[in-house]
Amino acid sequence: MTKKWQVLISKSHDIYTNLAWEDWLYRKMDFSHLNLLLLWRNAPCVVVGRYQNPWKEVNVSMLEDAGVQLARRNSGGGTVYHDMGNLNFTFMTERKLYNRRTNLEFIVKVLREKYAIPAEVSQRDDIVVKGTLKISGTAAKLGRTAAYHHCTLLCNVRKDQLRAVLTPRNKGIHTNASISVPSPTVNLSEINSVITSADMIPVFAQQFSDLNLSEKIAVIEIDPSDGDYPGMEFAATDLASTSFIYGNTPKFNIIRDFVLPSSQDTPAPTNVILDILIEKGKICSFTISGTATEAVKGIATSALSAVVGCDFDSQEMWAALSAGFASSSATTSGTDRNSGDEHHREFVYRCLIQTLNLQE
Amino acid sequence: MIARKRLLTHAWRQALGEIQPEWLLHSGFSRCISGLSHSKMRTPTAFPVLSNARTVEISLLGKPHWRNAQTAAAAASTANDIIQFKLSDIGEGIAEVVVKEWFVKIGSKVNQFDPICEVQSDKASVTITSRYDGVISKLHYNVDDVAKVGTALVDIKLAEGSPTSPTAKLQQPVQPDDMSSLQDSRSLSDKSKALATPAVRRIAMENNVTLSDVKGTGRDGRVLKEDVVRYLENAQQAKQKIEERIDQEAPSGIAAPSVKAKNTCPFPEENFSAPGSRQSSSGCGEPLKGIQKAMVKTMTAALMIPHFGYCDEIDLTNLVHLRKQLKDLAKSRGINFSYMPIFIKAASLALTQFPILNAHVDDKVENLIYKGSHNIGIAVDTPNGLLVPNIKNIGGTYAKPVILPPTVAIGALGKIQVLPRFGDHDQVVKCHLMQISWSADHRVIDGATMARFSNLWKSYLENPSMMLLDMK
């Protein structure tokens, strides 16, 4: 039986739906007689690799206000920004035919021949122009019988937003998670002003079709949510859940060292070291060390105890921290209160906020 | 009665993985759906149901071993063989990877093709699957360790009889890369992240459903039977399009006039409120959706591994009478008369005439590998009948028996029901009827063969004395 080739264009612009659809095809189709090219675009979002740390890679706190979603995909590789100016390709085949370079060479060929873009495939399997300006990032997933390689193509994205979300605030994070290698990027539209992602879809579909001369390749527009992919909607909901996106973060520590100003009790400066362990996205445990007094360490200990068990960076965590501050202020009222203690308390809480906010 | 209980307990323990069986283990009740056109549609009426009915499944395996026989080609392991499973070449000139996640731990039972771990190299995330059946006895790396290609990844204590030689590779059938559904169907461990009771897991496994695909509506997101059922109803509609497509493309398959199939599809007793609605061209099940999308979707869907189903009704009245006669005799000998050995024997006899059902495909679906001996697996459900009444209550939903690799065909026997039928002189007689539904890999088995095999098997069961004639 000859191989069937299909180009499937997703009508959805929801990152979770598209990721779930892509995963569904990868798991359920028999690729011994099938090659697929998926073409898809998403509303603004940031996508991290399967075992990456979003806080390490992304400015998580600005996402909600900016209206940018966060997603975790199943393939490896680094963090990327998508919006409608970005075109995603997924080349899905049987495992034996997996070949990233061939796929990327195909894209480069189209860019050169159709759009006069002097693109080339780099050593790291990115697509670059002028040697260093990246226009595409690549990632892949390999299983026993099937594999896919997907990549982005920066046609005309909002570069200001890209830069903002991909500039993380991650002070203090210590992790073994795979980190992204940042590179300067450029939009294709800056090189050739006619280019838009929407116009490129039919061109790439046509060029892909022309690859296989013996059989006409089917080019089909798909609405992934139309019920033909049982289980996919539920998978999309799972992909959008905090437990998947944040809960799959490999365990990491936040370690900060703060110098306390000298005071009546301690003429020489002292320090307090906070080491917080976060596993599966939840605050697991912590240790407090350093040369600071027991009183100071005690404040830190009781404050952090209030957030153990909370999802890191969640509303719950911040609420617990504030509640802890309020209640400890009540206990130091009255005759026991002196300005030194009060001073320490405020200082410790400021340090905690800085720590948990991952800021300098 | 006690002997039977012991038999069932033994089978149940096997199901739990405590005993390594030669028989394929999966139990439960499945109804058939069929993509066939039927020569006769039965007019639905309501029927009473036997309360203490029991369910049995028989599957025809392609595995090369049967009790003490061993094929010459594959050297089988003995007990306590421990093999080092090495990290094989991933390609792209990669020499080392980082272990990112383990899907097993020490003591986990694994089957060939089950996922073991996920490793990453630069931009690729790779799922490493097991080559062997057995139990994990050692993990050589921790998460975040760098693993060199060619070094040992895990140690596996091989299951008895597990082929270890390279010829074992020939027997790998083509499978969808649905790692998680293989996981759920091949192992009863808690690898699935979805919460569900063993009974629900079984239903999911029967029907090749990945539990994590199903939205659980129970407590803590628990997946309930109703959730699996709802999922199946949706999947049913998608799959019916596959079958319709296959029917259109291969009309000679099942509807061949030479096949004398008095086949009818079982209808659940509760659903006879609308007798006319069952007369759709696909046989039984839900009416099809609009055609406008069918073209596009079936093209995609048809490229999934194709199954087709065949179902029939077997009149076991003679067998039941035989059992009555022999029961006392058996009791005096201290053995329990069960239908099981008769079903198996009949299947074995029928197989000699249809050897293709005892074969399976290689990777490219180019070669058929015929097995020398018959390996017939049996699974027995408990008499508690957990699955039977609940699936029965679905209302219009049929589930196909799962074809688990390396099988090419699988049969599911329904419960034995006492139903009225017309006798030779148009009088009403009491018949003991059992539904049988077969599911087969369409790449290997054509409908006519399946039907003929089923008819032969059926004739043995309806006329037990015939078996004596054909025995060697």
Automatic annotation (TrEMBL), chain A:
The source's superkingdom equals Eukaryota
> What pathway or pathways are given for this protein in its record?
Protein modification; protein lipoylation via exogenous pathway; protein N(6)-(lipoyl)lysine from lipoate: step 2/2
Q: One Pfam annotation, family name? A: LplA-B_cat
The cross-references to InterPro entries, in alphabetical order and at most eight, read: aa-tRNA-synth_II/BPL/LPL, BPL_LPL_catalytic, LipoylTrfase_LipoateP_Ligase
Looking up PROSITE patterns in the UniProt record yields: BPL_LPL_CATALYTIC
Supply the Gene3D superfamilies for this chain.
Answer: Bira Bifunctional Protein, Domain 2, CO dehydrogenase flavoprotein, C-terminal domain
Domain BPL/LPL catalytic: start-end pairs:
31-216
Any one cellular-component term (Gene Ontology): mitochondrion
Q: Which GO terms describe its molecular function?
A: lipoyltransferase activity
Q: Name one GO biological process term.
A: protein lipoylation
Q: Which family does it belong to?
A: Belongs to the LplA family.
PANTHER family per UniProt? LIPOATE-PROTEIN LIGASE, LIPOYLTRANSFERASE 1, MITOCHONDRIAL
Protein name, as recorded: Lipoyltransferase 1, mitochondrial
From TrEMBL, chain B:
Residues forming the Peripheral subunit-binding (PSBD) domain are: 195-232
EC supergroup of this enzyme: transferase
For whether the record's keyword set contains Transcription regulation, the answer is no
Q: Which cofactor does it need?
A: (R)-lipoate
Q: Which domain of life is it from?
A: Eukaryota
* Similarity field: Belongs to the 2-oxoacid dehydrogenase family.
Which protein is depicted? Answer: Dihydrolipoamide acetyltransferase component of pyruvate dehydrogenase complex
Q: Which organism is it from?
A: Hypsibius exemplaris (Freshwater tardigrade)
